Amino acid sequence: MKNIFLIFSVLSFGILSSCMKTDNYAAPDATFSGNVIDSITGKPFLTSQGEAHIRIWEVSYKDNPTPQDIPIKQDGTFNDTKLFSATYDMQPYGGAFWPTQRDSAIKLNKSLQKDFKVVPYLYVVDVNSQLDDSTLHLTCRLKAPITQNLPQVLDIRPFISLTQFVGNNSTISEYQQDKYKINVNSNWGDGVGDMTTGEGFTTYALPALPLRKGRTYYVRVGVRVEDTYQQYNYSDIITIQVP
């Protein structure tokens, strides 16, 4: 009986020691941050919270690693403080921009600050707002930095929020109804814009938007194309104060 007890004690100690060794692995503590820049304007890429990502692959130990996605914030920045120091491939991914090349074998050692450049599919320009009592009227035009092989332009719609975070993921649901959008559903060269200059032909007047009196709204206009992700390119945010 004593021998059985000793064997059981040794086995238990071995299992416990194994668990303790597993728990002794260092937690991820490396930081990766940076900016996503519009390569045409040199300004931060206009997006909305979490609609585009920096995709990374840890290539230190595996040939086909599982990707990780770091969300790009509305101001074009990104930050992840819970990564392992290792070697990564990385690229901007999933946003309303032309496909990018993967940067390979980037070493992250405790801290890395790196910027990425992208080319948006479209710009929403010349946004004009007019408040008639509590009804908002918006007009805008489109501009394409690259016209060749531009995916079909799908639609234009407003995004309205009560906070400064505004976009497809942060908008008042009432204004996501299809009655407030403009369907384009055309290729750029089929009457949407000039193939040489990239200037859009049309000034679009969005449907009238009823707002509530006594509130402050944050508004922007978005347009999307028919690519894999169908995310929006946005205008700058404008502030509308309804008396």
How would you describe the overall organization of this protein?
This protein is mainly beta. It folds into 2 domains: 31-119, Sandwich (Immunoglobulin-like), CATH 2.60.40; 123-242, Immunoglobulin-like (Sandwich), CATH 2.60.40. The chain is built from 2 helices and 17 strands. Strands 11, 12, 15, 16 and 17 form a 5-stranded antiparallel β-sheet that branches. Strand 15 and strand 16 (232-234) form a beta hairpin. The longest helix is centred in the N-terminal third of the chain and has 22 residues, at 2-23. The termini are far apart. Residues 1-21 have low confidence and may be disordered.
Q: Helix/strand/pairing class, anyone?
A: mainly beta
Uncertain residue segments:
1-21
Q: Give the N-to-C terminal Cα separation.
A: 87 Å
How many strand units?
Answer: 17
Architecture of the largest domain in CATH? Sandwich
Given the structure, what is the number of helices?
2
CATH fold call of the largest domain: Immunoglobulin-like
Helix content: 10-25%
Q: Please write the string of helix (H) and strand (E) elements.
A: HEEEEEEEEEEEEHEEEEE
User: What does the average pLDDT come to?
Assistant: 91
* Shape summary: globular
